[in-house]
Amino acid sequence: MTKKIQGEDGKTYVEKKPFYKRVWFWIIVVILVFAIGGSMGNSSSFTSSSSNSSSKKSNVPTSYTSALHKAETYSDTMHMSKQGIYDQLTADAGDKFKPEAAQYAVDHVKADWNKNALEAAKSYQKDQDMSPDAIRDQLTANAGDKFTQEQADYAVNHLPN
What we know:
64% of the residues lie in helices and 5% in strands. It is mostly helical. Among the domains are: 4-34, no CATH class; 62-108, Winged helix-like DNA-binding domain superfamily/Winged helix DNA-binding domain (Arc Repressor Mutant, subunit A), CATH 1.10.10.10. A hairpin with a 5-residue loop joins strand 1 and strand 2 (12-15).
């Protein structure tokens, strides 16, 4: 269940559960475990092709590409904002990437931030019966989703009636 909290500005915000207590997190973990387990059994057949493709790539540090893959997952499955992804990637209770790796990730992730804001807004509208103004506040709040005002406005203006 979500908990409503009163912000310093007097507005009410919805406090989100930590990512590791959400269903999507455990679904991703299970998928990753199966994917890693499946690829380990076939690793010998891909060794030569993967080493050739990695030599063609630029010299981007592994931590940067790892952060980028996480950013893509957060954007595609959780519809997070650019700032929200950066904060999750660098958080001590999150992924603990260095700020440089997180910045690389959010700069290179292919995301439609307006679409992400709209998907988050639809969730607030459907699951929590929030008003458009409350949704806009939640999307832009520092204790909320951290979308830009323009992204939040786009989302609220495109909500289904």
